[in-house]
Amino acid sequence: MEEAYVNAKGHIYDIQGYAVHDGPGIRTTVYTKGCPLRCLWCHSPESQEFGFQLSWLDVKCIGAEACEDACIKACPEGALTRGGPVKRTGTEETVIRPEIDRAKCTGCLKCTEVCIPKALYVAGWETDVDTVYARLMKDAVFFEGEGGVTVSGGEAMSQFDFTLNLCRRLKDSGIHICLDTTGFAPTERFAGILPWIDLFLYDIKHMDSYRHEKLTGVPNTLILDNARYIASHGGALQVRFPVIPKLNDSPENIAATADFCAELGDAVKLVQLLPYHQAGRVKYPRLGWTYRLKNVAPPSDAFMEKALEVFKARGLPCQIH
Known about the structure:
Number of strands: 13
Oligomer: single chain
Largest sheet: 9 strands, mixed
Distance between the termini: 34 Å
CATH architecture of the largest domain: Alpha-Beta Barrel
CATH superfamily of the largest domain: Aldolase class I
Number of helices: 10
CATH class of the largest domain: Alpha Beta
Structural class: alpha/beta
CATH topology of the largest domain: TIM Barrel
Helix content: 25-40%
Shape: globular
């Protein structure tokens, strides 16, 4: 790789070590902030907005009464008031929550400075390539063999300068790199980053563009075109297909998804069928949002096995993840 990296700035919201589900081996995953999609089942709502977000974590809060309204008094805009009692997640205990008027909140974050238990916190922060690289290299001992770094999101390709330069620096150090992507970014960006990516973790959510837009907020034409581009230009793909009951689990869509994966040929190293789960729903109240799929149940094991057979019938390497 002849081009030198640039110490570009970027916004991230987490770095997680020992990430064994984000590509081969033991990995550390960098989660970038911001995504152009709005998937109804999104399990990381804090990843969606490009800006930083004030969040409230009920399990840490001791209650407005107990702290004598410290956060409320600290807000210069009057954006915080006493709300009603709410149960802590996973317990029968209740706390008086601070109610956040997000229309008044200017993001000064003075409330987070006085919140001793850190129940009020900021989702996301600004950083740069060198800072993230230094953090990642602390885990380098775990990357031996198949392991490495996964750059995820949000949508990491929406922060292209940061993502590209981080991958350049990692590749210069011989680190295996996975890019977890929705595929929704200009094709020229995929062309630019392709030499630095060992494996694309690539989401295919629905094969019908109209339905895809209803479920995610964007059509799928660019996503499918980019998958074809990566496959035809020497890239490796690990396709991820989230199976969401009543939304994309029809026999027709499962078959069409399997046909598309087969069309990509040897570039597809693995297809992962991801059964829908509700693990992310607890994150929505932290942002003041409502989870829209609360009445959707996960697919049965029998259904997932039947779907897997559709992919196996096309000779695809596949698994339920």
